[in-house]
Amino acid sequence: MSDKKTTVHVTREIAAPATAVWSTVRDFAGITRFLPMFELVGQADNTIGSIRTLKQGDAVFRERLESLDDTARIQRYAIVEAPVPLKDYVGELAVRDLGNNRCTMSWSSTFIVVGAPEAEVVSMIEGLYNTGIDHLVKLHA
C-alpha cells in the first residue's frame, strides 16, 4: 500500500464580494447551503475541533474543523470517518478578495488514496468541489 499524497485543487472566480462568500464558507455547520446533497446531522459550530456529521443517503461522513482564519479567509477541516477510498484527508476552503465585488474561491485537499484508482478518486473530489462552488455562485448571484 502506498502512502503517496494526492492533491486536488479547484479555483474559480465568483462575482460577489469576498466578505459575503466568506460569510457562507466559514460556517462549518452551514456546508449544506452549498452542498445540498448532504444533510447535517446533529450539532456543529465554528469551534476548532468541532465535528460535523453529514449524511448522503445511507453514507455518513464525519469531519473535524482544524482551523478557521477570518483574516486570511481560510477554513481547514479533516475527514475523520467516511465511506470513501481515501485516508489522511485535509481540506481547505479559501476566499480571496479581487476587489470590484469579485473574489476567488479555492477548494483544495491532500489525502492518500486507498483501494481505488487515483484518477477516479481525484475526479470524484473535483466534481464535489465544482458542485459546491457552482452553488456558491448561485447563492451570491
UniProtKB/TrEMBL annotation:
It comes from the Bacteria. Pfam families: Polyketide_cyc2 (PF10604). This is Polyketide cyclase. It comes from Rugosibacter aromaticivorans.
